[in-house]
Specification:
Strand content: 35-45%
CATH topology of the largest domain: Thrombin, subunit H
Distance between the termini: 5 Å
Radius of gyration: 17 Å
Number of helices: 2
CATH class of the largest domain: Mainly Beta
Structural class: mainly beta
Number of domains: 2
CATH architecture of the largest domain: Beta Barrel
Order of helices and strands: EHEEEHEEEEEEEEE
Largest sheet: 7 strands, mixed
Amino acid sequence: MRSVSRWLVLPALALALMAAPVCAQEMSARASDRCTRAAVRIEVSFPGGSSVGSGSIIDAHGYVLTNFHVIGHVIHGERAAPGAFLDGEHVQIATVASARDTATTRYIGRVVRGDVRLDMALIRIVANADGTPIAAGTTFPTVELTTTAAIRPGASLWAFGYPQGVRTINVTGGHMTGFQMSAAGGADPEVSWIRTDAEFNPGNSGGMLVDRQGRLVAIPTAVQTW
């Protein structure tokens, strides 16, 4: 069995084949700062281990989009069947205010929705790291969602996330290199995957791939192939 890296397109799925990073300077400082604040590091501790990944705050009320495999089981194993959540007590959410900050756990989240088939999950921030309630009226920095309708091969894209062992935001630039369409076909087939040469490392799972306006185009995932 081997593992390959992919990107989940919104609202469908997307594939990312890894290659050397490409420097791209078209994103504005404002867009980059917004993505940095909306990116989160996710950790779920459970008996015998932990799962670490990345995510994106997509709603000001504290909803975080990530991969299902960051917070649950996606393949058959000794512990649980596919679709079961990890048996940790809570999801730890770490954020930063700027690219120079070190990500520390600031919030506690709970999974509110998950789809093992799409490898996507939605988490809501429900408390501060010490367990105290979130102050009334609190809003969170967000990243805007978009689709692949406006992007073409050659378009600049950026990956934001927290690779394993990295506690500051990690950003790599590259280009959209192609589409993979859905197997359903038809007169107007949907995009199933997109390919990009932006660098992707373990821990980036569930993070963000954004366009030059800082809009979330896709999220990365790792899929098992036989």
